[in-house]
Specification:
alpha/beta; TIM Barrel; eight-stranded parallel beta barrel; 18 helices; binds the ligand Cc1ncc(COP(=O)(O)OP(=O)(O)O)c(N)n1; binds the ligand Cc1nc(C(=O)O)sc1CCOP(=O)(O)O; binds magnesium ion; TMP_synthase; nucleotide-binding
Length: 497
């Protein structure tokens, strides 16, 4: 009987194109609240759970395994048992994962039957080829990087995975020290799945950690690669707002959708009128998009009112969208206020706790923190305070500081990262902030980890400013098209430049 209680023949197609062995592959640890943490990871996109319990107490191993098997059955998630064939049979698992010392996969196949999944740990080309020849449905291959979760004798690294890729026709599950930041190298080396323990189960937010890792597989998606939703105002002049966001997402190679929060009558000289969209219709637009389009990342811009901010926060929670870049737009280039006074507190209370990256400029950071910011030290303090208000990561943009390069400071809760670019003196900077935040959201949707996404977005927006051309009689727009052609598919940018 299958793990979901039916006489289920889990027909596993060994052809890696059709195999269910792909994406984020969670391996359990021995910590407390295991089922709760595993379920949070499943909510974040994990579809394969391997129960790995090296304990000696068989009854305890069975009891914990039973709870996890029932959880996986309820959620339609593949449940694999590590090492122990008897336990796998007792728990009616969907499969087993065997180490080199854990028995012959052929025997496991005979005992489990054709419809079950058999994985084998491998560390060399020889072991990988032998496992494939023995009929394994996938191989584990490691270790990718140093890890504290297991004593490892061999660091194969992503290079080792790339070396076996061409000869292994079944899925390769990479394992060992994998994280959001080093995961791209493993995906780019050809891994079909990333097996992780601590990157998800030791993370304070396993849902978010699983989501971040899952996004890395968009690196392989066909164009348009990744889907970005912008929730912002319309700029009739076309230089900022959803117009800038959609140009950015599209020109950088992703799919853009939009929810409009306000209509502005605007041109290069300023804003002459604003009509807020009824919050109920903002909610209706959000339902229409989020119930149908597979949105990977969200970018918010002008949110106009406290009611709209609350509506957006509630819908992001309802649809469990966590990779949200919030550009706290407050004042238009010409000085017109784009948010009402009461809205700032609602933004801090309701939206910040759901913010993956907050991207204030200096005036916005000062308004949100009450600080006066005159240098990088002030930017760092503002970032710390905004992190404490709930933003998971904070990018304070230094463009408004008058001296030196244009320096932006990223704070991820533990470290600061500087992103610098030459300061470009131009009046054609309309839409800079929108474009920068939209580019970050786009690169995140394409599977770039945060620092790379910020670095590449900084390069893009700097080029867009530099290539800006006069248009209208006021502040001309940045040049999205020429900037996209210039940055193209160059290698990713990184922090500390
Ligand atoms: C996918 C995957 N790959 C490797 C392992 C390692 O298994 P483990 O039982 O921890 O060690 P070995 O028995 O393979 O030496 C795994 N659990 N999952
Ligand atoms: C279980 C395991 N097997 C490895 C191998 O190389 O075979 S490395 C490893 C530990 C993986 O844990 P983490 O994701 O916390 O690094
Ligand atoms: Mg083992």
């Amino acid at each position: 009987m299958g793990s979901n209680g039916h006489n289920l023949r889990l027909v596993v197609n060994r052809d890696k194109q059709d195999s269910p062995i792909r994406g984020v592959y969670l391996v359990t640890d021995h910590g407390d609240r295991l089922a709760e943490r595993v379920e949070a990871a499943i909510d974040g996109g994990v579809r394969i759970v391997q129960y790995r319990n090296k304990g000696k107490d068989r009854a305890q191993r069975y009891a914990v395994g039973e709870e996890l098997r029932d959880l996986c059955s309820r959620r339609g998630v593949i449940f694999i048992v590590n090492d122990d064939l008897d336990l796998a049979l007792q728990l009616k698992a969907d499969g087993i994962h065997l180490g080199q010392e854990d028995g012959d996969p052929r025997i496991a196949r005979r005992e489990l039957g054709p419809g079950r999944i058999i994985g084998v740990s491998t560390h060399t080309m020889e072991e990988a080829l032998a496992a494939q020849a023995a009929g394994a449905d996938y191989i584990g291959f490691g270790a990718m990087f140093p890890t504290n979760s297991k004593e490892i004798g061999h660091l194969a690294g992503p290079e080792g995975l790339a070396a076996i890729r061409s000869r292994i026709m079944i899925p390769i599950v990479a394992i060992g020290g994998i994280s959001r930041d080093n995961g791209p190298r493993v995906v780019d080396a050809g891994a079909d799945a990333l097996a992780v323990i601590s990157a998800v189960l030791a993370h304070p937010d396993p849902f978010l950690a699983a989501t971040e890792l899952g996004l890395l597989f968009n690196r392989r998606a066909p164009h348009p690669r990744g889907a970005v939703l912008t929730i912002a105002g319309s700029d009739s002049g076309g230089g900022a707002g959803i117009q800038a966001d959609l140009k950015t997402a599209t020109l950088l190679g992703s799919y853009g959708s939009s929810v409009i929060t306000a209509l502005t009558a605007q041109n290069t000289r300023g804003v002459s009128g604003i009509h807020g969209v009824p919050p109920s219709f903002v909610a209706e637009q959000l339902d229409a998009v989020l119930s149908d389009i597979p949105v990977d990342t969200v970018k918010t811009g002008m949110l106009f009112s406290a009611e709209i901010i609350a509506t957006v926060a509630d819908k992001l929670a309802e649809y469990r969208k966590r990779i949200v870049v919030v550009d706290p737009v407050m004042v238009a280039k010409g000085g017109a206020p784009l948010i009402d006074r009461g809205a700032v507190n609602v933004l801090k209370d309701r939206l910040m706790p759901r913010t993956y990256l907050l991207t204030p400029n200096i005036p916005e950071a000062e308004r949100l923190t009450g600080l006066t910011i005159v240098d990088e030290e002030g930017m760092q303090e503002a970032a710390r305070r905004l992190f404490r208000l709930g933003a998971r990561n904070v990018l304070v943009k230094g463009g408004h500081l008058v001296a030196g390069d244009a320096v932006d400071i990223l704070f991820d809760g533990s470290a600061f990262h500087r992103f610098t670019a030459p300061r470009i003196l131009s009046k054609n900077t309309h839409g800079t902030g929108c474009t920068y935040a939209a580019a970050i959201a786009t690169y995140l949707a394409q599977g770039e980890p945060l620092r790379e996404a910020v670095g590449r977005a900084k390069e893009f927006v700097t080029a867009a400013i530099r290539l800006g051309q006069p248009l209208g009689r006021g502040h001309g727009p940045v040049n999205h098209l020429l900037a996209a052609l210039e940055v193209g598919d160059q290698g990713p940018g990184t922090g500390d430049r």
